[in-house]
Predict the structure.
Amino acid sequence: MIFLAKAAEMNSDDGFKMGDPYYCPECERNHIKGQIYKDHLQYAQVPDIQDEEKAEEIEAEKDEDIEEEDLEDEEDEEYEDDDFEEEYDDDFDGVDEEEEEYEDDDIDDDDDDDIEVYGSDERGVEECIEQVKDLTGVGEATLRKLIKAGFNSLESIAYTPPSIIQEDSGLGEKTTAKLIKQAMKRLNVGFKSAETLWEHRKNIARITTGSQELDNLLAGGVETGAMIEFFGEFRTGKTQIMHQLCVNVQLPKEKGGIEGAALYIDTEGTFRPERIIQMAEALDLDYNKVLKNIVFGRAYNSDHQILLAKEAINIIKERNIKLIVIDSLIGHFRSEYIGRGTLATRQQILNQHLHDLLRLCDIYPDLAIVVTNQVQAKPDVFYGNPLQAAGGNIIAHGSTIRIYLRKGKGEQRVAKIVDAPHLPEGEAVFSITGNGISD
Ligand code: ATP
Ligand code: MG
């Protein structure tokens, strides 16, 4: 509410001529008739007491702007880390607490020694963090916030929308924009020739599914840098394929693996270590090692699932994760958002979740994401297959490759490519045996 009424009163016939000085009891100072309205308006545009909260908000916004402007000024000069940190420590009360928290759930605290992480010829975690630290404007405090929120590489900063970086890290708008701009510049993000792209795609690593036929259908196996969705009715082998991939991703390259670890997000409670052991033994692998290289998270609801997916970014490098499994992707969403009225909200949240996942592929091109999906009957289909993947268009646009599974004879299952940017339509028959997935 703004006091306009008093100012308007001054315009009424109050016995003063235009240009006459006029003592205003409201402002306790003189106005000039004719200018009164303007002067008074300026004075009057103080928010009402009822709007105090709003005023505080505006005040806070102003403060942030000022701080960020300071940052801008400083950027021209040699960067003083300490100043920057102080500034941000001030505006971020929870820093000390959070710092402790960070140390507590530090990944290194886990029994990391037990976990055999395969060697990787790429940059290590430290090197990635060094590159972030090297960005102009990143002091200790900022770096801490970035790392805590999972932004521990140039890629993770460059490919994440600014709003998400701000929300997750607590950094200001301008700082975030600057960091993104710098990260993009250093990574040379922009147009590149198709030839460069081909160079990259030629070398894409693939994980064998265990079935030669299924691998052929997928042009060599589950490819990295993409999200693949297996959907089908119950008992069509979705969960079995997920288990098998967690084992196979660990195989050496010559055996169809990519020498990485797996992260399994289980939303249905159907992950079985026993099954992993069977599959590992069938491949003559030490099952203890294989189990250690599967990081497991049980998601109890859709929020939890989203959180686990967001946290994945923190351990991908440390644990050499090359495969992320979500079994199943939309089960929780389907049961929690019931009825037409909630559909739009569900799709929006699901869309964000999918983008969180797809972004991981951008950040880590040697990471494969595999998800399962249920089917739902499409009521308006009278001929052909009335079953389609749940989740609607959101999932269809999110996953790069979609495979439809159906039952065949006995242990046989049929996989059909439904949607893939570069693969021809086709089918493959595979089996689910005691040893896992095979032809
Ligand atoms: P849902 O939609 O219910 O999750 P799903 O598609 O995930 O189903 P899976 O659990 O992957 O289905 O597949 C179940 C099938 O796998 C069973 O029908 C069974 O034939 C086969 N299977 C599971 N374990 C074994 C095993 N140890 N030996 C042989 N076959 C097995
Ligand atoms: Mg299943």
Notes: The two ends are 73 Å apart (CA to CA). The chain has three domains: 1-93, 124-187, 194-438. The CA atoms of residues 201 and 220 lie 13 Å apart. The longest helix spans residues 52-76.
